[in-house]
Structures are given as structure tokens and as C-alpha cells.
Amino acid sequence: MTVAFVLHRADGAPLSTSFRRAAFGKDDPFGRIREIAWEGPDSMIAGRASLIGELDVASFPHLETIVVVEGELTLEAAGEAPLVLGPQTGAVIGGGTALRVRAESRVRFVFCAAACERPTKRGLIPLRADADFKPSASLPAEVLLGPAPQCRSDNVFTDDAAEYLAGTWDSTPYHRVVRPHRVNEFMHLLAGSVRFAAPDGSVLSLGAGDALFVPQGAPVGWESRDRVAKFYVVQNVQASIERD
């Protein structure tokens, strides 16, 4: 299946996704450790990284969501209490944030980042599995292959300049047809399992602790048979942003 890019499997199973080592612009503080799985024309990337040591960043050059999958990572933004991230926890780093990043032993994380010339929100915003869920829109009847689900979300970060949203979402089970994905979306599953169908009939199965990225326009279906919860990042429009 090539319409979705698997970034991490919690059970350590091999990935079919190809990664390349590259920086996200010339000032990328994670440039030496990035492994990029997808980079789009809308100035968004998704992938994985590993770090040991300490980094000081005077002004974070883009927006980035990270979710730790192994080890412990400490993020310290100026004027804020340190944020310690262990496995299956995450945070959003706002553009322009002054930041120190520390990993006393090797830590692995997955990420989704977007360029933004005029960021509107700085600081560190944690992602929480025990989110303050509120009812959110279900799916239109014409794309469903069964009962409509009950969906909830807690959107904790929005940067209007990049049309970048991040938070936590959950849903009751549902089955949806294969259709073009309407947004760029990063997902890290916290609970449940999902079968993602491709137009050729192949199915990609992912469960709690796994992470993937689905580009805007990629044809993909969804089938879940139990409650699913996930951290998400979505980018609603293709931004015409150039990076050095």
C-alpha cells in the first residue's frame, strides 16, 4: 500500500516506508537526525528521528508536532516549566519558540512539521490522551458503509497562517469507503485498531502505538471495530510557502 506512509510500528515490525535523511530548511535544529518519509509541495513533512544529547534553539524555525515512541525527551521553552515526554506522549512546538531539547539517553520520536513564515502561536502545547473531548462532526452518510460514528475531538493547537491544527480525537467504530483524503494528516494511534483500505483492495492494519501519514488526495478507506483514539495533525490547505 503506497497511499499511506507508516512511520512507526509499536511491535517493531519492519516498515515498507522509505526514509531519507534530510533537514527541513537550512535552520532546522533536528536537521542531522531527521528521517523524512514524506515531503509535500505544501511545505509539510512527516517522518521519524532519534536523539541523544542537548540542543538549544533561539527561535524554532517552523511548526512541529512530535510524539515520543521510545525513551524520554525534555522540552524547555523560555518562561515555561519543563515538559517531559515519555512513550506515547507528544507536544506541538510553535514557530518562533525559544527552546532547549534534552535527551539523556537515546529517544525516538515521530514528527509532522510545517513551514510558516508568520507563525501566530508560540510555546509548547502538550498533547494528552486524557483530552478534554468535545463532540465533533461525524461523516456524511454517502461515504459510510454502516452506522454513523460518534466522534469527539480536543483541538489544542491552531496556527491560522499555516492552516495547521493538532490535538486528540476519538470515535466509535465505523466503516468508510475508499475516497481521496481531504487533508494532509499525521496520526498516532493511542487506542484501538484501524484497517486502511487502498483502491487495489490491499489493506494496511495499524494499532495502538503505531503512527502514519496520509497525504491530501490519497485514496484511502477506514474500518474500525472498536473505539479508536489518536493524536492528529491536519493541514487543511496547500500553502504556497518557499523555504531555503
TrEMBL record:
Residues 166-232 form the (S)-ureidoglycine aminohydrolase cupin domain. Coiled coil: none annotated. This is Cupin superfamily protein. Pfam families: Cupin_3. It comes from the Bacteria. InterPro entries: RmlC-like_jellyroll, RmlC_Cupin_sf, UGlyAH_Cupin_dom. PANTHER family: CYTOPLASMIC PROTEIN (PTHR40943:SF1), CYTOPLASMIC PROTEIN-RELATED (PTHR40943).
